[in-house]
Amino acid sequence: MQQLAQNNLEPRKDMTSPAIISAGAKTAEKLGQTHLCYIGPFPQFVTGDPQLVKEILTSPLCFYKGDITYHGMHNAFGKGLLTMQGPEWLSHRKLMDVGFKYSKIVGNLPIFNKKTKGLFERMDKCHVMKNSYDILVYFREFTLKVTGETLLGRDFDKSNVDMNLYAKKVTRVLNYLSDITFKPYYRNSIILKLAQLTIFKEERQVLEFLGGLIDEAFKHYGTNSQSDPEYGNGDSVLAAKVQEYLQNNIIERELAISSMIHLFCAAFETTSMTFYFVILMLAMYPEYQEKAFAEVSEIFPDNDDGEFDVTNEDILRLRYLDMFIKETLRLLPTIPQFGRRVAGGNLQLSNDIVIPEDLEIIINIFNMNRNKDIWGPEADKFNPDKFLPCNTEKLHPYAFIPFSKGLRSCIGMRYSELLLRMVVAKIIKRYKFSTAAKLEDLELQNHISTQLIDYPSLTVERR
Fold first, then answer.
1. Is residue 129 a contact partner of residue 156, using CB atoms and an 8 Å limit?
2. Is residue 68 a contact partner of residue 39, using CB atoms and an 8 Å limit?
3. Is 134:161 a contact under the CB 8 Å cutoff?
4. In a 3-state reduction of DSSP, which class is residue 122?
5. For the purposes of burial, counting CB atoms within 10 Å of the CB of 352, is it exposed (0-12), middle (13-18) or buried (19 or more)?
6. Which residues of 299-335 are buried (b: 16+ CB within 10 A; e: fewer)?
7. How far apart are CA 143 and CA 170, in angstroms?
8. DSSP state of 154
9. Mapping DSSP to helix (H, G, I), strand (E, B) and coil, where does residue 96 land?
10. What is the Cα–Cα distance from 456 to 440, expressed in whole angstroms?
11. How far apart (Å, rounded) are the C-alpha atoms in residues 238 and 218?
12. What are the CB-based long-range contacts (under 8 Å, 24+) for 5-10?
């Protein structure tokens, strides 16, 4: 640690349980965007400086995920796309990329359009909600249906399943992941093993159930059966392509199932939380909500109550909505931080700091997104105009990276972007949202993803 100490980085003791994120902003004010902290006895180099972030995320020495940060995910979900390291990860990522080519994602737009009807059926019943957590549950159900059909090829609307129960089960799995990530006593292998056999027994059973669903999809596409009405033809379905890898012995079955669980859970949590935060921001800022509504109404002028089909060309025209969603992700990033580990030598940064090999690095997205040196004196204020072209052209290319960037950028970035813009456009055309809650009053906490401690009241009206 001497190399870091020589650069006057002041260390601090950090909280070891899911921390209220706003505490991190106070830390940045005190110590700066770059500092050294400790999670229990474990040191971490923390930065929210865009230039340093770029150097880290593009360096071949930072090709590895952080052991501390991803300890929980590895033990919960096993080896897979989100936890694999180095060259092994790179070859595996290339295999899985085939399901996230832009042409494949655009091919999923009919599914996105179709599934929104079921979401409307749930949201039509919302009205005055004293606790808006319920609408988050609806988005979780919707996201499960969409990912089920686009990743597995299975239409859960044709199955006799309780999607609300499914959503609750996956939510419990993610809470389990959060617990074993942030609570230091679960780093003891004996304690963790006992907890998985007792406290987290049901969560482990849910993961086995998810693995079973994925294996069923592999088997379906392996037999080329057309008789099961719950499955599509597999032309743009990732599970069908992975089944080809299995048949050709390119990938092991256990790894294939594990990686699909990684993708399934990541899409479930990040997408549903972003949907919820966008709706909440629409409710909090009626003037911006009306601007977004005006844009959507101009592109889709018919009195269709949001039941229009959105094409890729339509999505490209939704410029203000794009700005609104980006501003939501800036102030309420679904993933507030992520980790890397230096491997293969010491990392020399442009500010003369040398990060020694094996030290874990935390990229502090939350603090970077609220840094006044980057976003101006009103960095904490919600204003979609921050993403006008005249403003974004001045930004450092790594100042806003909601889906990460560099060598290990998010595989589902384009998928998520298209889904969010398409569905929110339809929602805005159909509903008007309002709330008495204020952004500055929200208490945020990190349970792998950014979540609220309390979910405010929300009114949903049909337009």
1. no
2. yes
3. no
4. helix
5. exposed
6. bbeeeeebebebeeebbeebebbbbbbbbbbbbbbbb
7. 11
8. B
9. helix
10. 12
11. 10
12. 7/351, 7/352, 7/353, 7/354, 9/34, 9/35, 9/36, 9/45, 9/353, 10/35, 10/36
Contacts of 251 (CB under 8 A, 6+ apart): 92, 95, 242, 245
Question: Please, what's the b/e burial string for 156-195 (b: 16 or more CB within 10 A of its CB; e: otherwise)?
Answer: beeeebebeebbebbbebbebbbbbbbbeebbeeeebeeb
**Pick from 109, 110, 139: nearest CA to 122:** 139
Sign of the dihedral through C-alpha 416, 417, 419, 424: positive
Q: What is the DSSP string of 226-267?
A: ---TTB---TT-HHHHHHHHHHTTSS-HHHHHHHHHHHHHHH
Residues 370/23, Cβ–Cβ less than 8 Å: no
Contact 338, 53 (CB under 8 A): no
- Taking only the tens of pLDDT, the chain with its 463 residues reads 334 433 434 333 333 334 444 445 555 556 678 988 887 778 889 999 999 999 999 999 998 988 777 888 889 999 999 999 888 999 999 999 998 999 889 999 999 999 999 999 999 999 999 999 999 999 999 999 999 999 999 999 888 788 888 899 999 999 999 999 888 889 899 999 999 999 999 999 999 999 999 999 999 998 876 678 888 877 778 999 999 999 999 999 999 999 999 998 988 889 999 999 999 999 999 999 999 999 999 999 988 889 999 999 999 999 999 999 999 999 999 999 999 999 999 999 999 999 999 999 999 999 999 999 999 999 999 999 999 999 999 999 999 999 999 989 999 999 999 999 999 999 999 999 999 999 999 999 878 889 999 999 999 999 9
Residue 339 near residue 69, CB atoms below 8 Å: yes
Tokens of 37: 């902290």
Please list the alpha-helical segments (H only) found in 285-368.
286-299, 312-317, 319-331, 365-368
Q: Is the pTM of this model over 0.85?
A: yes
Sign of CA dihedral 388, 394, 395, 397: positive
How many whole angstroms separate alpha carbon 139 and alpha carbon 327? 20
